[in-house]
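Bumping with the actual sequence this time:
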Amino acid sequence: MISGYINASVRAAAIDGGIEPMEADEQALADFLDSLDELIIVEGINDEKALLRHGVDPDLIVVLNKGQTLEQTVEAISVVDRAIILTDMDRAGKELRHKLIRLFGLYGIREHKKPRELFARLHLSHVEGL
């Protein structure tokens, strides 16, 4: 499933620990998805569909590019004090994340970084690829 995205060191550690590579991949993905317990901002509908396929609560997913500006979207979620930004790891996704972080600051929202850090560690470059 995501075996093409897991780096060699994670694979080697899993084998050393007595876990087969595919099992490690599946466990890492399951742990990642279990960590999603706050509002999750994604770039588009395909990202939303991928999260929904893996059982993420639809009430937690905020999809950008649905007719609202970034400012309007962040203002709409300003009732929370922390949210997860799961934009893609490409240049456009990173730029979008930085814009969101700046807007978060205006509304007192903090980014919950742990899920994104795990996403990066697993070398998952696009949410829709889950």
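The tokens above came from a reply further down the thread. Strands lie at 40-42, 61-63, 82-85, 110-111.
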